[in-house]
Amino acid sequence: MSTKKVTKIAVLTSGGDAPGMNAAIRAVVRTSLYHGLEVFGVARGYNGMIEDDIIPMDSKSVANIIQRGGTILKTARSKEFFETEGRQVAYNNLKKRGIDGIVVIGGDGSFKGAQKFSNEFDIPCIGIPGTIDKDIAGSDFTIGFDTAVNTAVEAIDKIRDTADAHDRLFVVEVMGRDAGYIALHSGIATGAENILIPETKTDMNALITALTEKEKRKKLVNLIVVAEGDEFGGGTQVGNFLKDKLPNADIRVCILGHIQRGGSPSCLDRLIASRMGYHAVECLLNGTHNVKTLLIINTNPK
Ligand code: F6P
User: Fold this and answer.
1) C-alpha 72 – ligand 1 centre gap (Å)
2) Residues 165, 137: Cα–Cα separation, whole Å
3) Ligand 1 center to residue 265 CA distance, Å?
4) Whose CA is nearest to atom 10 of ligand 1?
5) Is 157 helix (H, G, I), strand (E, B) or coil?
6) Considering only CA atoms, which of 123, 62, 90, 107 is closest in space to residue 294?
7) Residue nearest to atom 7 of ligand 1 (CA)
8) How far apart, in whole angstroms, are the C-alpha atoms of residue 63 and residue 274?
9) Sheet holding 222-227, edge to edge
């Protein structure tokens, strides 16, 4: 493990974008500059490292971005970085600039890449959890989840209005990859009648029995929130199953999709992104090297 003093830091965003990534980039850049470090931005995740798309960042380069969704550095899921040759080229590009510390803002896949890279080349990497899925083990917070779940809630509330007007059953699919957090949180917050998540096995026959009971009682408006990764399938599969089993019900399926990834970050996402960005640089300066993730953040300052 390296204990060299870090002098030049590179920051990148990797994997699916998440609202608040810009706030994290800003915090990394400004904290680095405050400590007299040189800081570089890498474009399009690990691809930019391999393609040598690495640019110096100054304070002005991160002005007016804290409120913006997406990522000014752009992001990608790099296949080349999974290969040893790709990582070697990436390292050479960092080395020729003297970059000796990396901050990776992304999800689990991005951290796995960082860990491998860090072990191979003895370069300290700090990971900041940035994903709407909230699926980073050991962290209660990931940048983007709060904004995404609020976007989902706003959309589902609107769907509830039209469902109510037409006496319809709506199946709403939300994102989350293999995790059910967006579905669980948005489903509870919108009073969904049922929430289907991959973490628990849904008894589809019990669901049909319950909905048939409701039909008999003339309760025709129902919202079912389904996580895209549910073991039964996503919204389309669930909708088709229900249409088949409940021929009298007026059923619609709505897939919220990438709308959940965009938009201006919430206050919470800006706050945790700023604190994590600051903390990542402090970690590098304090010699906390080769850590896989920046896992826990205390959002209740004493
Ligand atoms: O990981 C974030 C996420 O939005 C998941 O919720 C979703 O499954 C996936 O990315 C979608 O990826 P893409 O934008 O590449 O289709």
Assistant:
1) 18
2) 41
3) 17
4) 16
5) helix
6) 107
7) 177
8) 14
9) 194-196, 222-227, 169-174, 251-255
Nearest CA to ligand 1 atom 8: 177
Q: What is the DSSP string of 171-237?
A: EEEE--TT--HHHHHHHHHTT-SEEE-TTS---HHHHHHHHHHHHHTT---EEEEEETT-TT--HHH
pLDDT of 293 > 70? The answer is no
- Is residue 108 within 8 A of residue 136, CB to CB? The reply is yes
pLDDT digits (tens, 9 = 90+) for 167-194: 999 999 999 999 999 999 999 999 999 9
Q: Which residues, judged by CB distance below 6 Å to any ligand atom, belong to the binding site of ligand 1? A: 16, 107, 131-133, 175-177, 228, 261
pTM, two decimals, is 0.94
Q: What span, in angstroms and rounded, lies between the C-alpha atoms of 227 and 229? A: 5
What is the pLDDT averaged over residues 226-249?
98
Q: Which domains, ranges and CATH numbers included, belong to the chain?
A: 8-144+265-292 (3.40.50.450), 147-260 (3.40.50.460)
Tokens of 40: 């570089």
Within its chain, how far is the Cα of 225 from the centroid?
19
Largest CA distance in the chain: 72
Which whole-number Å values give the CA distances from 137 to 75, 77, 107, in the listed order? Answer: 22, 20, 10
Burial class (CB in 10 A: 0-12, 13-18, 19+), 64: exposed
Number of alpha helices (DSSP H) and beta strands (DSSP E) in the chain = 9, 9
169-174 and 194-196 strand pairing: unpaired
Determine how many CB atoms are found less than 10 A away from the CB of residue 297: 16
Residue 299 has pLDDT above 60, yes or no: no
Secondary structure of 39-100 as H, E, C letters? EEEECCCHHHHHCCCEEECCHHHHCCCCCCCCCCCCCCCCCHHHCHHHHHHHHHHHHCCCCC
Split at pLDDT 50, 70, 90, the class of 246 is very high
Tell me if 134 sits within 8 A of 19, measured CB to CB. no
Q: Are strands 222-227 and 194-196 parallel, antiparallel or unpaired?
A: parallel
